[in-house]
């Protein structure tokens, strides 16, 4: 795996998509993920921007992904609990259940062959569309390199 490519692509992508005012995402997390390895092995955070999570905190989320019961369970990231609202071939969208934001919060979760990208955003439908486009841009770069 070419981690230098992933680092460069991540740095370029977060500059124009994550964090500052006007960008579609408030945070993004890139997780090394291989669904074929035993679940007792922790997935690691390859990159993160705008979030402060530790691998141990991701265990419930990774277990949620492995179980594959997306429409019937919730998952936790940091202090927020999410419920899946739509499921697609390699990605799903979720809304935060315990948000304090008036317009709400959401997550777009995309899986490539080697990573899971979690893109977090504030807002509703329009914000979700912008977040999806931003997440898809990075996931497409990884997929072109078979990551």
Automatic annotation (TrEMBL):
GO MF term set: actin binding
Source domain of life: Eukaryota
Protein name: Profilin
């Amino acid at each position: 795996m070419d981690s230098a490519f992933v680092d460069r692509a991540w740095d370029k992508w977060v500059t124009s998509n994550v964090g500052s005012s006007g960008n579609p995402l408030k945070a993004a997390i890139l997780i090394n993920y291989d669904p074929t390895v035993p679940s007792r092995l922790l997935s690691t955070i390859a990159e993160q921007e705008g979030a402060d999570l530790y691998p141990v905190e991701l265990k419930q989320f990774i277990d949620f992904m492995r179980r594959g019961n997306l429409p019937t369970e919730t998952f936790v990231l940091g202090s927020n609990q999410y419920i899946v609202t739509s499921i697609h071939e390699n990605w799903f969208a979720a809304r935060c259940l315990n948000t304090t934001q008036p317009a709400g919060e959401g997550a777009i979760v995309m899986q490539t062959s080697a990573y899971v990208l979690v893109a977090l955003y504030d807002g509703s439908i329009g914000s979700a569309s912008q977040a999806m486009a931003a997440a898809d841009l990075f996931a497409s770069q990884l997929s072109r390199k078979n990551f």
